Amino acid sequence: xxxxRRLPRYAxxxxxxxxxxxxxxxxxxxxxxxxxxxxxxxATPPPAQEAASEEPTEPITxxxxxxxxxxxxxxxxxxxxxxxxxxxxxxxxxGVEPAYDYALxxxxxxxxxxxxxxxxxxAKVQAEEAKPEGERDVAALEQxxxxxxxxxxxxxxxxxxxxxxxxxxxxxxxKPIYRHLVEQRWREEGDLDxxxxxxxxxxxxxxxxxxxxxxxxxxxxYLEPPPKNNYLRTRVKRKLRQVEPGIxxxxxxxxxxxxxxxxxxxxxxxxxxxLMVDLDVPNPDTQSFTTYLHWMQPNIPLSAxxxxxxxxxxxxxxxxxxxxxxxxxYHRYVLLVLPQASASEPIDVPVLQESDRLGFDFRVFAAQxxxxxxxxxxxxxxxxxxDETVSxxxxxxxxxxxxxxxxxxxxxxxxxxxSKKKYL
Length: 424
What we know:
By secondary structure, the chain is of the alpha+beta class. The protein has 14 helices and seven strands. It has a four-stranded antiparallel beta sheet with strand order 5-4-6-7, covered by helices on one side.
C-alpha cells in the first residue's frame, strides 16, 4: 500500500534528488520533454559582464608542469644557530593581552632604572681610579667594581630578547649577562646535577680523586650504535651523538677519539690538561683492580670564546680505544679536563710509554704537577663491557694477545668437611 503525502514547496528544485514522492510528480517528471541539443546556431554568447570578468590566461606547457611537480619545499624551518640566527618576536600581538603589555613595559622601565644606577656607579669608579696610588681606598674600590658587575647583569637579566638568545644558543660570550645565564642554566636545570649524581654513584670520587667541583660544561660525542642488521652495518653512515654521563657504550663506538666541546665562563685564556682513565683493569697479582691511562694532553688553552680545543689532542700521549676485558664487570671510563697550577706557564710532562699506562696513579701525578679537582675543571664518564669487537682492538690496534679472566672463586664453607673421610 502506497503512502501519499503532500509535496513541499521546494520539492520541484530537488527533483534530481531521490526521495519519497507521489505518482503524479514522478509521471510528470517522466513525461516532461527533454530540452533540445545545443548547436552552434542556437548557442547564445555569454553576457558581457561575465566575458569582461574573465581574464585571458596563458596556456601552461608540459615543461612548466613538470618543473612544478619536481620542486620540493622544506617541510620545517631550519634550526636556530649562529649561522642561521633569528631575532626575538613577541608571542602575541600588541593589544591582545593588556597584562602582557603592562608586564613588558614594567620590565623595560626597570632595566632603564638599573642602567641609570650603573652609569652613576661607573662614574664613581672612574673618579676613584683617577686618584693617586696612595690616596685610593682599595677595599672600597673593589666593592664598587663588584657591585658594578652585579648591576651590569641585573640591567639586562629580565629582558625577553636577551633570555631568548641565551636559551637558543645565540649567546654573545663577550657580555657578562650571557655568560651568567648560560652558567645558571647549566648549574640549575639538571646537567650538572646529572653529572655529579653519576660520578658519585659510580664511585669515581673517591676511587680516582678525592674531590671534584666542575666549573665548566664538558660534552663529548661518539658514534651512534651500529644497526643490528648486518647488511646495513657497512652501508649506513653513522652520525656522532652526544653521550649522556654514566651510560653504557659499545667498544665499537669508542674506537676513535671523541669530539670534545667545552663551555667555559672566564674570558681570560688558561691552560688545562686532559686525561682519560680506566678505573677497572683487573690485576691478577693483587687480586684486585688497577687503572689504565688511555689518553693525555697537557697545556690546552681554553677560554669562554673556545667552543672546542684548538690544539691537536694526539700530540702527547695518543688515544688508545677502550678495551674492557673478557669475563670482567663493566669498566668505568673517566675523562677529566683539569686546570693547571699556573694558568699561563706550560708544564713539562713526559710522554708515557705503554708500560707506564698500566697502573697509572692519578693521585701521585696530581701531587707532582699541582692538579686539584676542588679548583674546578670539567669531567665526564661512561661505562663499557666486553664484546666481540674488543678482540679486533687487541689484534689490530694494540697488536697483542687478548687476556682472559675468570670469575673469582667463591670460598667453600664445607671444604674442611670434604677433606675428611665420610665414613669411619
